[in-house]
Amino acid sequence: MHRGIALGDGRVLHNTPFRGEHICSEAEFRAGKRMYVHNHDGELRQRTLRSARTGDGARGYNLLTNNCEHTVSRHTHGRAESPQLRSWVVGTGLAAAAFAVTRHPAAAAAAYVFGRKLSARLSR
């Protein structure tokens, strides 16, 4: 799921592979899909707007270190994190280990699912 910060004036701050962190219209962000909005305090919106207007901290896209989730969490919590990426890495790691030990695809698939769930539970 793609993430961004609704700025409250019909624009969204988000991060994409070809443009990096930038502001676009809600219509462009949604690209015809449903948009879910979580409300945050006005201070967050003002801080994000100031940063976006001045270009402070605008970063390029990197799947592992600066994807859309990193951008949103950096603006909302002060630290860049990507729970989706973390759960994918943990699940894939456990799947690879299970396959290396058992050489059975079903064991690898089960380990992948277990790793994703474990990562989600630990990050709460």
Brief synopsis:
This protein has helices at 26-30, 42-54, 68-77, 83-102, 105-122, and strands spanning 4-6, 11-16, 20-25. The protein is an alpha+beta fold and 124 residues long.
Biggest sheet, in brief?
3 strands, antiparallel
Number of strands: 3
| Rounded Rg | 18 Å
Strand order of the largest sheet: 1-2-3
Please count the helical segments.
Answer: 5
Average residue pLDDT: 88
The secondary-structure element order is EEEHHHHH
End-to-end Cα distance: 18 Å
Shape: elongated
Summarize the amount of helix as a percent range. 40-55%
Strand content: 5-15%
Structure classification: alpha+beta
Unreliable residue runs? none
**Domain count:** 2
Q: Any overview of this molecule?
A:
The protein is an alpha+beta fold and 124 residues long. It has two domains: 4-77, no CATH class; 83-122, no CATH class. Helices cover 53% and strands 12% of the residues. It has helices spanning 26-30, 42-54, 68-77, 83-102, 105-122; strands spanning 4-6, 11-16, 20-25. It has a three-stranded antiparallel β-sheet. A hairpin with a 4-residue loop joins β1 and β2. α4 (83-102) runs antiparallel to α5. The two termini are 18 Å apart.
